[in-house]
């Protein structure tokens, strides 16, 4: 294959990726209820915690990172089923599987759209919730950074779970059982980074582990999700 052919093939792959990404983002913006629901869930769950315990500043600070991260996990989980379900129901998913583009690349585009539509809004509102939990300013910045580094792994792992269960009606419980155990490393490293700052330790090791976990899922999960989709379609 000549250099020109290689460049043309790479351009074709990139064009397919961007086209599917833009399509899914347009659909997400059109379905505003699905876009707002994870953010509202995230805000409500975190906001209820201070009302349910004694107004103890130290207690809120100790529990805050874990509460915010657990709420982010559950909020991300709410929007997972919409990643492949509409395409499965209208036959588009089968067309994607039969397209000349690698299915793993198309899965990556859909996972990226899911992250942009569901996780980025959570990252944006996280500093406000950190203030509600009375986290110090330096911990607020690390919290937002940990969500930036860790939430891509949630979407990528979720793509595998949705790929396996997309052909099953009312798959919410099964999907949760599949993906929540795999979310645990992100929860541990993300909350641990914030806790490290609050006890005057360096959060860098936790953040690096979180980034490594996301990079690992980036390498593995699109291929696994593509294989899961092919199994579900057969």
Key phrases:
234 residues; mainly alpha; 0% strand; elongated
Topology:
Elements lengths: L2 H28 L1 H21 L4 H22 L6 H6 L1 H7 L4 H30 L4 H29 L6 H27 L5 H30 L1
Helix pairs in contact: 1-6, 2-3, 2-6, 3-6, 3-7, 3-8, 6-7, 6-9, 7-8, 7-9, 8-9
Describe this protein's structure.
The protein is an all-alpha fold and 234 residues long. Helices cover 85% and strands 0% of the residues. It has helices at residues 3-30, 32-52, 57-78, 85-90, 92-98, 103-132, 137-165, 172-198, 204-233. Helix 7 (137-165) runs antiparallel to helix 8. The two termini are 33 Å apart. 38% of the residues are buried.
**SSE order, as H and E?**
HHHHHHHHH
Rg is 19 Å
Distance between the termini: 33 Å
- Estimated helix fraction: over 70%
Low-confidence stretches: none
Could you tell me the number of beta strands? Answer: 0
Proportion of β residues? under 5%
Helix count, DSSP H or I runs of 4 or more residues: 9
Q: Please state the structural category.
A: mainly alpha
Taken from the alpha-carbon principal axes, the silhouette is elongated
Largest sheet: none
User: What would the average pLDDT be, to the nearest integer?
Assistant: 87
Brief characterization of the structure:
The chain is mainly α and 234 residues long.
């Amino acid at each position: 294959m000549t250099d020109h052919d290689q460049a043309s093939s790479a351009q074709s792959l990139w064009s397919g990726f961007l086209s599917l990404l833009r399509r899914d983002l347009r659909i997400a913006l059109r379905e505003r209820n699905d876009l707002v629901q994870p953010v509202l869930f995230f805000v409500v769950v975190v906001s209820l915690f201070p009302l349910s315990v004694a107004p103890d500043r130290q207690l809120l600070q100790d529990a805050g990172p874990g509460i915010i991260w657990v709420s982010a996990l559950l909020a991300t989980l709410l929007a997972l089923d919409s990643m492949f379900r509409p395409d499965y129901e209208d036959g588009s998913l089968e067309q994607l599987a039969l397209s000349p583009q690698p299915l793993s690349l198309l899965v990556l585009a859909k996972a990226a759209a899911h992250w942009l539509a569901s996780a980025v809004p959570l990252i944006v509102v996280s500093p406000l919730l950190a203030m509600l939990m009375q986290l110090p300013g330096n911990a607020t910045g690390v919290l937002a950074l940990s969500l930036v580094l860790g939430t891509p792994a949630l979407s990528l792992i979720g793509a595998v779970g949705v790929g396996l269960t997309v052909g099953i009606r009312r798959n919410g419980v099964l999907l949760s059982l599949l993906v929540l155990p795999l979310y645990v490393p992100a929860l541990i490293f993300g909350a641990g980074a914030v806790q490290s700052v609050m006890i005057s330790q360096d959060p860098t090791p936790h953040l690096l582990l979180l980034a490594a976990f996301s990079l690992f899922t980036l390498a593995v999960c699109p291929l696994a999700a593509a294989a899961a989709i092919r199994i579900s379609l057969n």
